[in-house]
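One chain is below:
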Amino acid sequence: MIKGCKICGIKDPDTLNFIINHPHPPKFIGFICNYPKSTRYVSINTLTKLLNVKKKKIKFVAVLVKPNYEILEELKSLPFDYYQLYDCTPSESKIIKQKYKKKIITAITIKEKSDVDNYKSFYDVTDIYLFDSKGYEKSLGFNHNLIKNIKLNKELMLAGDIKYDDNLRNYKKIANYLDLSGGLETSGLKDISKIEIFLNNLFKIKNET
């Protein structure tokens, strides 16, 4: 059952304010904190200014690729609710969770079926599982059928080349949350009109009986 979504890769105040004040806002907003290869990367100085907003009931997510001690210390005073971790071991994730008192979204990147089972090692530390492609900043897809029959007993977030105008009913039996970034962009920038269409469509799907 789809409960909501995460809009990821926000880096400008106008887009952030539009999303926060939308009548059907996402449950999560993600910010790329330590991955400069991504065009959606936001520096600490910019993040500090950007996040100085009333986020209402939305959860802010720091997206982190194998973060080091320095970046974690820089982030600890910012209003993040979740850390979304790529390329961390279960023990590394556990240390981060305990030290910084954040909920953890464990990103499991998938190219083939054998990648799926990696989720099992993270069960004790994970609050939400994110199944994503191996593409990282490239917004690549993967075969969502690979995770269709997983029984997690935890919430599942799905990313990987989901488009703003997809038939969202196709995801109702797979995921609790949809995670979009590139699918809401035009020429590499967040497109307000696409965000509007997606959030309104998702609201309709969530409220279907």
